[in-house]
Amino acid sequence: MQISDAMKFLRIAVVPVISIALGVPAVVCAQAQGTPSAAPTAPPVQLQPFTASDQSASAGVPAGWKVVGAAQTNIILSGPEGEAIDLGEGIIAHDGPFQLGQKGPDGSDMTMPYSAKLTDKLTMVLQQRAALNGNPVPQTKFIYAAPLQSLPAGFQCGVFVVAGSGVPTPADALGIFCSLPEDRLQFYKNFLIIGSAPTAIAPKEVQTVAAVIKSYKVPPAWLQKKFALFTAPASPVLDQGPGDPAEIQMYLNAMQDQQNVIDHGASCVDAGLVGPSSFGQAVSCGYLY
Q1: Domain coverage including residue 174
Q2: pLDDT tens for each residue of 181-221
Q3: For position 161, which CATH number holds?
Q4: Closest CA to 191 of 162, 148, 232
Q5: Within a domain: 106
Q6: 106-147: per-residue pLDDT in tens?
Q7: Quick one: how many helices (H) and strands (E) in the chain?
Q8: How many other CB atoms are found less than 10 A from the CB of residue 150?
Q9: Residue 23: which of 166, 177, 172, 154 has the closest Cα?
Q10: Residue 185, domain member (yes or no)
Q11: β-bridge partners, 78
Q12: What is the pLDDT of residues 215-225, one digit of tens each?
């Protein structure tokens, strides 16, 4: 599958998906299930091309799925059996103590500590989303989580796979979560790419969700806008800061270099679904700890 240079960082490998939380050190806490065996090879997923009306993003849509929202680089899809994929959701946070269900100042989505670990930030983001929508706050358990290294200063990103519970329909989720630098007024942007499916059907939805996530593309101009600081600098300096081309290219290069981390996450998720297929995989994914 061809992916534009501007979106190589989104090349997420296979796994199941829904509710949420992301960690910092490479941590795997799934337990082996059943008899070790190799996952069967599935045929390629057929997708129908879709582009948002504002031309800010595109992605493939599986048969039977619907696009329920698309604007400002964010595409939201829903599946026929309760699956959901949210591509490129942006969350504006203001530095301060987390207040569940309350929005932040000056139009921001929430208040949460900028110094918090990435795991905690994502957990708060997911809790806030649920609270603002009037839904039960999810409880999450990591299956796999790992940070992406060599990012520009102030950038935090990681890949995650979790099991979600404490909600009417328990589900599993996979994605990438990023937290960007803080601006002069202590606002900072966060971005979430996540696919989800009810736990009961997650194993059979792995390939479909992964294919959609890997098809997601954002034009470079929109990507630059997405990375720009929430509050403009007091004295603007041309081509300097999180949204400038040099920073964006550094970010994209780092994401591409971390494909091995993402692929390892996919391997561990497969192991979590069907049991580790080898002793080496069991060790590397934390099954023997």
Answers
A1: 5-284
A2: 999 999 999 999 899 999 888 888 878 888 888 888 888 88
A3: 3.40.1000.10
A4: 148
A5: yes
A6: 999 999 999 999 988 988 998 999 899 898 988 888 777 777
A7: 6, 10
A8: 12
A9: 177
A10: yes
A11: 66, 84
A12: 888 888 888 88
